[in-house]
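Task 17 of the worksheet. Students: predict the tertiary structure of the chain below and write it out as structure tokens. Keep your answer in the requested format; marks are given for formatting as well as content.
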Amino acid sequence: MPKRSQNNRFEVARVLERAILTGQFRPGDHLPEMRIAQELGVSQASVREALQDLEGLGLVLKYPNRGSVVTQLSGDDLAHIYQIRRELEPLACGLAATHVTPDGLAELHRCVAAMGAAGEAADFGAFSEADVRFHRLLWRSQPNRFLEKSLLAVCLPLFAFDLIRRHATPHVDFAHTVRQHQLIVNTVRLRDPERAARLMRRMVGRWLRQDMADYAFLQENEASAPLPDKPSLAFLRRPFDSTHILPIKSTPASFR
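Model answer:
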């Protein structure tokens, strides 16, 4: 990779993003800054900044004295995240029902349309991006900025982990998920905050049950699959496809 100081962090972020989403790095894998910098021919500072961008997207978690690792959540983690999400997202949806603008509603419709098109094409990456964009737009459509920040902190690792685990072998009912999101938009348009909040609470409960079932299914498949042999990071030097799933350069912390 050419050493271009202004662009290195974004190029490194995209290379690492692709490596994570294609399974070259698995959930829980350590991401050694120095070795990655050596493989890509960039400074360690560029790698550190790229990892910060990926942390903002939820793809990477950083621990004191351990460094950065690919996001990994346990079944208990999923249950705990949903315990909080089930309280906060219905509140956000109810507030959005009385504050969303006509432009905001139109954008929510576009997100659902994008999900539908991606689902028909079986493009899980594009589907997931539109899905996350939908939720982030819904959260921004209500006036409580602290609520929005809380949902981002709680849900980004959930969304990212879901994308990491499913990207190679998607296990999704695209059409059903699109219908669920269209129902949310239709309900928000009615300007009835209590009805919107009730619907979202039901939806989050269904998503929890589905995610836990999918988690068990994926865990079983992963347990029977051989672990990849990665004696080096040479795979990072392979020709890089410039297309990417997440909008790293334009909005570093806006996965959805």
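Marker's comment: The two ends are 28 Å apart (CA to CA). The beta strands are 60-63, 67-70.
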